[in-house]
Amino acid sequence: MPLSGPEQPRRAPRRAAPLAIALIVGGAVAGGASLAGRLSPEASQTDEVTRAVSDSPRLLRLYAARDGEPLWLAKGAVDPARLAALGALLKQAPTHGRDLTWLGRAQAAAKLDPLAAEVALSRLLLNYADDIRRPGARHAPTFVDPSLLPAAADLSAVFASSDLPGLRAALLAQNRLNPIYDGLRRAYVEAPDSRLMANMNRTRALPAELGERHVVVNVAAAEVRLYERGEPVRDMKAVVGALDHPTPMIAARLRHTVLRPYWNIPEDLAQTRFAPLARRLGPQALAAADIQVLSDWTPDAEVVSADIVDWAAVETGRKSQRLRQAPGPGNMMGVAKFMLPNTMGIYLHDTPYKGDFKRERRAFSAGCVRIEDAEGFFQWLHGAPRGKFADGRPEQAVGLDDPVPIYILYLTAEPTPV
User: Fold this and answer.
1) What per-residue confidence (pLDDT) applies to 58?
2) Buried-most residue among 141, 325, 350, 373 (CB within 10 A)?
3) Whole-prediction pTM value?
4) Amino acid 2: pLDDT
């Protein structure tokens, strides 16, 4: 389990309190009948269980799949073997960064009257399974694609189990969250380390299935890794955001590639880099670098002369000026940029400065990710070389019929590829 990159200084996260467990001890049901005590002689056990969980759509669906049959009871009482199977799962809470109070709550719930215990144990399991998948707002990537949003725990296999061995296996399977997290957790079990737990917190909300083909950008290591069928097939170096322009953690999908792209110059760079250049060397210095001045910020903006711009006002921030660099050998985007639509303006792209990838520390971009082999990345992504698609137009968009998941993460430890 290699540890890579500096762990950014972070305040110790405030541990979120586990969700309150709603133990049904004496709550009223239709007609005022109590759920505590013996099962009602007027209703079957399955009807009582179904009514007891009617306030939880998830539990209602789970119990419906087993026709309302209790999961934890046998012969009208909590089954010690089934309780032990649940306890075996909850004892592993510390390996997820959670505490053993979950186990104590299960033991307390088991002492309730049978129906109350049945419902309390199921609620506790549901809450626990969700909790270990919940990273906290400071740790989670920004999920910009709805198809990759964190999902609630899937307990269908637990409730579908018909025997004790099946229940044990289904419960222990709840420890598996996603391939990256699972690899980190295995290392943590062998040798607990706060750095491993920090990385587990950053990955616990990722989808259980990362995608048959997917991309992982590790910002800490400044590397890109391509995966097929769960196995890494290609690594390449990257240049990532500088400390003052860090590359954010994102879960998205690569949806199209832009060939011969313009470089749309960020407004702060127009002010701090290009306005001083125009003032010092004259507007012709911008033309020499293929920098174009645009009339406004609309899609229909026109190229105008740099001579009409008040560059002193741009430099001091009194005026905003839109600039872009035309496609060409010196374009900062290189031959292609790879788009993962998001509101943060983050994407992957080529670069004309290949020597940057020989540097050991590669955190000096404005936030986007420059990749070492854009041609190879394009071919892997689209299944054919760039030349098969290129028609010479600026800003030519090449779509993907099957968008590829991409996870931009900050991992100072990561599972070693097999």
Assistant:
1) 96
2) 350
3) 0.85
4) 56
